[in-house]
Amino acid sequence: MAIAKVTGIETEYGIAGGPDLDPITSSSIIVNAYAQQGRTRINWDFEGETPDMDVRGRVDLTSFAPIVETHLANTVLTNGARLYVDHAHPEYSSPECRTPREATLYDVAGEEVMRRALEIANASLDPAQAITLYKNNSDGKGNSYGTHENYLVRRDLEFAHLIRAMVPHFVSRQIIVGAGKVGAETEPALEHNPSFQLSQRSEFFEEIVGLETTLKRPIINTRDEPHSDAERFRRLHVIIGDANMSQVATLVKLGSTALLLAALEEYGPTDFPAMPRSPVHAVRAFALDLSLSVAVPCDDDRSRSAWDFQEELWCVAERYVARTGGDVVAPRDEVDFILGQWREMLDGVRDDRDAVADRVDWVAKWRVVRGYQERHGLLDRDAKLRAIDLQYHDLRPTHSLAARVGLRRLFDDDAVREAVHNPPLSTRAYFRGQCVARYPEQIVAANWDSVVFDLGEGPLQRVPMLDPLRGTHALTSELLETSASASELLAALDR
Amino acid sequence: MAEQERIQKQRTERSGKTSEDVSVDATKGDQLKADLDDLLDEIDEVLEENAEEFVRNYVQKGGE
Description:
The complex is a heterodimer.
Chain A: E1 7-12, E2 14-16, H1 23-46, H2 53-63, E3 74-76, E4 82-86, E5 89-93, H3 100-123, E6 132-134, E7 147-154, H4 159-172, H5 174-177, E8 181-182, H6 187-190, E9 196-197, E10 205-210, E11 217-221, E12 233-238, H7 247-267, H8 279-288, E13 295-297, E14 303-305, H9 306-324, H10 332-351, H11 361-376, H12 383-392, H13 413-421, H14 429-438, E15 443-447, E16 450-453, E17 461-464, H15 473-482, H16 486-494
Parallel strand pairs in A: 10-11
Antiparallel strand pairs in A: 1-5, 1-7, 2-6, 3-4, 4-5, 7-12, 8-9, 13-14, 15-16, 16-17
Helix pairs in contact in A: 1-3, 2-3, 3-7, 3-13, 4-7, 4-8, 4-9, 7-9, 7-10, 9-10, 11-12, 14-15
Chain B: H1 2-15, H2 19-46, H3 51-57
């Protein structure tokens, strides 16, 4: 039996500029700028006011100077997300979400959080020192940073089956959800001298299975940190993936992966296409192949292109939905939408790329790069083309190319604004976010599976949340509504 | 939601094989090309002034 595919995305943003050009300092400025604004908002909410968000943003612009702290900034937001400095990047880890569409919304909310942090921080900086943020995964010089997905899976799912079933998807899904890249930056890819690749990340992968994330990156990561009841759950931590600017691409990336994991839990790996004999070669070769025709030998002695893999995997997911309804992933209309978009993008990249340029990031980027190159007669290596690549991911509305290529949106501004401040309703992120919003002065720490309260007297009190599907709106909203203080909440929880 | 409905409607239209649908797609293709041309016309105003320096200075530390 498949279990609910609780899902989230962690995104490390590329960062440039700042007072001393040090990325750690600049990342701290970004996180602290937003954290300052967050505390202000919580106090206002505590007093029962509901001020307009935009006005509040402008007030904050002049109210706070960014504070640089020597320790790395790390905070929990009222929407249940974590915002912190990871190594030398600001990172937004979305709250746990119940469906791919919800997780996509909270990923988009993360962009908005970063955009607001950027505005607040830059309002206090000399314009020459302004910070810029990029939702991408490499600097074009061999340095990569991650966009990681997390999926809740059954603990008793055999890891060997997980590898066997999911490697084909992780090496091939880039043909529809790759973010595209001008040129190459690692030796094996540079040998091919590509003008463009499908994915930001593919050339950085060196192993099939492993624990690393920064060196010898594996296609399947074995980090075993469930952030939940380890007897029942595993958190599949997926490090092979690009940061998408296209909302539909994020939805299909999460939705296709969640459906395949559910199909695996339900029926085992038998129906999945065979593994490529050399997955590392496959993921890199597919990234370099804009014709989508390169095929690789597989364990069943057949050869498959990335498109062939995706075709078979789509059928696995479609059959799973036909037999079960797919409700562990999402309600039926959402599952049907995911399958429909996945199908259209797959057919589009093969037969009619213009038709999916509004959804497939690499196609959208490639059209601009190639159009500009042809118009101005530039060489493949021209810096202008690399600048287009970088600026596709620029978060500033004034500089973003992704905002100018006509990508379809799934959410309007109101929905995103709501998700910036409020947690999803159907996971434990609801309880976390609500506690942070309601009792900020009494919370000393919160993480994925607990909230720690300090009531001022007695020991710290830890509220564990070991089941991601408890702590939901349905289970806790009445309790939260009727608890005027943290001590009332804890007393009620004790009863 | 409205966007979702629109996309699903388009999908239904595309799967049909009438001559009307062909013209719908052709118009869409022309529109996409026109939009791209417009973007290419104005892109120099959006691109960082010194592309060479911008690209050279964009250096990140690895993360994850």
